[in-house]
Specification:
Length: 449
């Protein structure tokens, strides 16, 4: 009896490290397990994608953006970014306006597979869930349909639920009767604030002959795909008593799947050996934010006099430096970039602006967090860190040096944070993210909903 042919995998990712790198990690592992893969994202990622053995196809038009042309293609917010407005603006332009270009890019790939490369072969799409270019097909538009679509949840779960506040505002979970009523009222307000986005999306979908959406885009992203694989553990998400049938938790990517530095900083032994047994504090603002005065500088300043601490700052991008007039404190070490997996095993507390990847990596290493972020999904990360008992929610993206110091001292002095971090690390270790993804592929190929 011959072995059934594996499906062809088509990976789709919105440009940006937080989207591309996790999808790339999944693709790399599945390729090592014998799957053939095509990967579409921005042209800038070509070498990185081809290095894992995938066939690379660039996105077209304005979907092929990067940090260099980002501000040319997408207008900045026209007012100070509150949490909800910031999110709606980003979704409208980055995710919404690129739908036609993403859609055509994917359809052209599918046509090529159908006509020339592998006619009759099943194709499974695996994508970060903000890749909206396949929504028209999922809504019923004409075109080539894959055997299944798997969305990867790379942010806090945006799905509505009793006691769950509207996504994007970072409000606390409240399942009490009063809280449920309050949240329902806030959902009505949310729909009004996002009306421009909703109308715009429905207009785009109408051009494909489908729509309007029967639920808010936050929910549609989760419910419409064949599988929605939330890349965290249940204890880091608010309970949803009636989840959609395709929702699964996978745990986070295991260590070693975000690359390593070619050469460690000259001061690395200060961390790895730590002869004086200092408490190590790690601070970063991720890869997209270079305004270091928001979090990195307040952390370095606030902890400058703490001789029992070693503060490590990662600036998030190759070649980045702090401003020339800032004198780095004696107890601080600064580098342009340090992979989380290499540093976090030594870290006692992680100060972050709330990137989801960093959040999950901290949990994987049993590291408590202090989160200071208000843009995009970052307040939702902060709210979940607080709700899970994993750390402190600063409720601002620009804390004072004094506030950072107090938060660090609180986390280090109260053992409950480290204890909770260890519990969540243990739970995370029970999940096999790649095994769950592969199981979903096999189920969809077998016709299992």
């Amino acid at each position: 009896m011959s072995t059934p042919q594996k499906p062809l995998l088509l990976f789709c990712a919105t440009p940006g490290d937080g989207h591309v790198l996790p999808v790339r990690a999944v693709a790399q592992t599945l390729i090592s397990r014998g799957y053939e893969a095509i990967f579409t994202t921005n042209s800038e990622s070509k070498a990185s994608i081809e290095a894992i053995g995938a066939t690379f196809v660039p996105l077209t038009g304005r979907a092929d953006f990067n940090m260099a042309n980002f501000h040319t293609l997408f207008p900045p917010p026209d007012r100070a970014p509150g949490a909800a407005y910031s999110l709606a603006h980003a979704m409208k332009w980055i995710f919404g306006s690129t739908i036609p270009y993403q859609h055509e890019s994917v359809q052209e790939i599918l046509r090529s597979i159908q006509q020339r490369q592998a006619p009759g072969r099943k194709v499974i799409i695996i994508q970060d869930y903000t890749f909206w270019g396949n929504l028209p097909i999922l809504l019923g538009a004409k075109g080539i349909k894959p055997a299944g679509v798997i969305n990867l949840g790379l942010t806090p779960l945006p799905l509505k639920g009793p006691g769950v506040p509207p996504f994007g505002m970072g409000l606390p979970y409240d399942p009490s009767p009063k809280g449920i009523v309050k949240n329902e009222a806030m959902y009505a307000g949310r729909d009004e604030r996002f009306a421009e986005l909703t109308d715009g999306l429905n207009g785009i979908f109408a051009n494909f002959g489908v729509g309007p959406m029967k639920e808010h885009i936050f929910d549609l992203q989760v419910t419409i795909s064949d599988r929605f694989l939330q890349m965290c553990i249940p204890s880091l998400e608010y309970p949803r008593p009636n989840p959609p049938p395709g929702l699964r938790f996978t745990g986070a990517l295991p260590g070693g799947h975000r690359g390593v530095t070619k050469e460690k900083p000259s001061w690395w032994e200060d961390v790895a050996v730590n002869a004086e047994k200092k408490r190590i504090v790690f601070v970063t603002q991720g890869t997209a934010t270079a305004q270091y005065e928001k979090l990195i500088l307040p952390t370095l300043k606030g902890l400058a006099g703490c001789e029992d601490m070693l503060v490590v700052a990662a600036l998030g991008r190759e070649g980045a430096v702090l401003r020339s007039d800032f004198k780095v404190p004696k107890n601080s070490r600064v580098s342009d970039f340090i992979p989380y997996d290499e540093l976090l095993p030594y870290v006692d507390v992680f100060v972050t602006n709330g990137g989801y990847g960093g959040f999950q990596h901290a949990v994987s290493h049993g590291t408590p967090l202090i989160v200071a972020g208000v843009a995009a999904d970052k307040p939702e990360v902060a709210a979940r860190v607080e709700w899970a008992g994993l750390g402190v929610n600063m409720r601002t993206e620009s804390p004072t040096p004094k506030a950072v110091k107090e938060a660090v001292e609180k986390v280090l002095s109260e053992g409950r944070y480290k204890q909770r971090a260890r519990e969540l690390e243990e739970e995370m270790g029970k999940y096999d993210v790649f095994g769950i993804v592969e199981e979903s592929i096999k189920e969809l190929c077998a016709g299992s909903v």
